Amino acid sequence: MEAHEYARIIRRRWRVLVACLLVAGAAAWVTTPAEPADDAVTYEATHQLIRDSSATAPPALASLSIFVKTGEVPRRVADRIDFDGEPAVLASQVSLEPDETVGTLGITVTGPSPSEAAERANSFAEETLAYLGEEAQQLQQDQLGRLNEQLSTLQVEIDSLDERIADAESAGGSSGVLQAERDSKLRQYGAALDQQQQVLNAAAPSAGYVTLQAALPDLASAVEGGFSPPSSRPARTAIALVVGLLLGLAAVLVTERLDTRLNTADAVQAAFGLPVVAEVPRVSIPDDVVIAKADPASAAAEAYRTLRASLVLVPTVIIGGRGAGTRGEPEVILVTSPAPGDGKTTTVANLATAFAEAGRSVLVMGCDFRRPEVHRLFGVDPRPGISEVLMDARRELASVVRPTMTDGVQVAPSGSALRSFGDVANAGRALVGQARELADVVIIDTAPILATNDATELIPAVDAVVVVARAGKTSADSARRTKTLLERLAAPTAGVVLIGTTGAEGSYADYYTTRSEPAPRRRRVRRPGSDKTRLGERLEPWHGPDAAALRQAALNRPRTGPAAGAQARDVDASGRPGRGRPGPAPERLDP
Questions:
Q1: Mean pLDDT, range 164-169, rounded to an integer
Q2: Of 117, 415, 432, 513, which residue has the fewest beta carbons closer than 10 angstroms?
Q3: DSSP 217
Q4: What ranges in 44-113 are assigned the alpha helix state H?
């Protein structure tokens, strides 16, 4: 995506970004103490142990490392230095550096001062050696105890055998078996006695390791730590805001990726496979207000005029390429949408007003029989209406047509509820034929094309189909289904109207701002009977109250010269040719 597309996404989902910023900033502000703690310098000291060459079976360095940091040794050190916390916390300040090649173990401990660091390192080393020495001594005592017990047992058994041999000999019996058993016991007794002597004659039990270099306060070094977060509340809050911004941007992009709703004209065009013929910005007005009449100078009203121009000048599209598009002003326009609430009825009312501004007579047909709304926008009674004509074959469409407060716009409301929606399929197209004779332009408000079948029944009888989509509501799946349906019907589609966009961007946003006193602008006026133009002496407002009168006077002014009497097409309020009724050719006003 381009940079401006990212900016558009952020502008559309700015609430997610702001929420992440607020949460991150508030969390950092609340969790940071008001008074930052002083940054204390820590020191580390190392006590080196080496394997005792005179030891018979010293423990392995891996086992020694376990003894240093777990179990009895940390508890003894905590008691020795009067450490207030848990022994495990004290042990976490110890780092070990074993070297199997030379048999050394470096015990490095951190502390708030050189002396405390040295004291802690020496305490861990000394308590480790003491613990291992006690374990070795206890192991020797246990071994002597087992040997003494064995010797005592063997002595009792030998004495018992001596008595049994003496009894056997006094009785004149054989004592060979007993004598052999006694000899075996004597040999066992001798072996156990030899083991006892070896243990007693062995060197005093030791830990298996001795001190190579004790930790000294003078050798303790200050710890140069890596990155440490600032402790002040403003600094931490600033960092949290930066992190929140990054997380917010990630959340915005993920949300945009997972959101299947259409928000931009490019996304709508890609999903529908149709051009976006108008983008109507989001406006805050009551539901029953026609913006093209209530505020004709607004950007929304201008968007509907753009839609009118597109319908007149741009050929319709047969989706799938199975037919040629038609060029020129369509007489019958059907407006539909994928789903309810997309803004199709509002589009119908404003498009009718835009055509009426151009001097067309417009008939609006309310063919949404499920949720009729067009009569409310134009302020007419809903009954009788088209449903009465469909149910009574003797009734004409003209009998239910009503004038409105908008000059040039008439409405045929939907009427009462239909008893059978099959009447739309049977007589709907014939009503469209009658409507062609009642106005220059017929605009049909139908039900959503994916919700009901009413719109599909009328499509073969119309000249152009306009699809309405709402930004942030219409999904890509609905757009694809609508495209498939219109392609299957070979509908003469003019394009898509995107409702509820973010509006004009940049300098264009101020262009539609209505000023209380518009600046006058000079106009070039064609003099009757002359082919040349000159700069008019009078000044008139560009959007002033005399603009319409001047335009109408120019249209009614008779032509002179070679072109007099020629038949021409009528001209709408924007100076475009109309449908082709004969009349005097208009004078052109060159800005």
A1: 82
A2: 513
A3: G
A4: 61-69, 72-81, 87-91
The two beta strands, 276-281 and 402-403, are unpaired
| 3-state secondary structure (DSSP) of residue 517 | coil
Residue 94 in tokens: 């110890």
Residue 148 has pLDDT above 70, yes or no: yes
Write out pLDDT tens, residues 70-94. Answer: 888 999 999 998 888 888 888 888 8
- Beta strands 492-501 and 464-470 are parallel
CA pair distance 224, 361, nearest whole angstrom: 86
Number of H helices, E strands in the chain: 18, 16
Give the C-alpha separation, 265 to 255, whole Å. 19
At which residue do the structure tokens 């407002």 appear? 541
CB 124 within 8 A of CB 107: yes
Query: Which domains, and CATH codes, for the chain?
Result: 3-37+228-258 (no CATH), 43-222 (3.30.1890), 265-503 (3.40.50.300), 521-591 (no CATH)
- C-beta neighbour count of 6 within 10 angstroms: 14
Q: DSSP for 312-370?
A: HHSPPEETTSSS----S--SEEEEE-SSTTSSHHHHHHHHHHHHHHTT--EEEEEE--S
- CA quadruple 414, 415, 418, 421: dihedral, nearest 10: -20
Distance CA(43)–CA(334), nearest Å, equals 83
Comparison of pLDDT for 305 and 513, the residue scoring more: 305
- Residue 376's pLDDT is 86
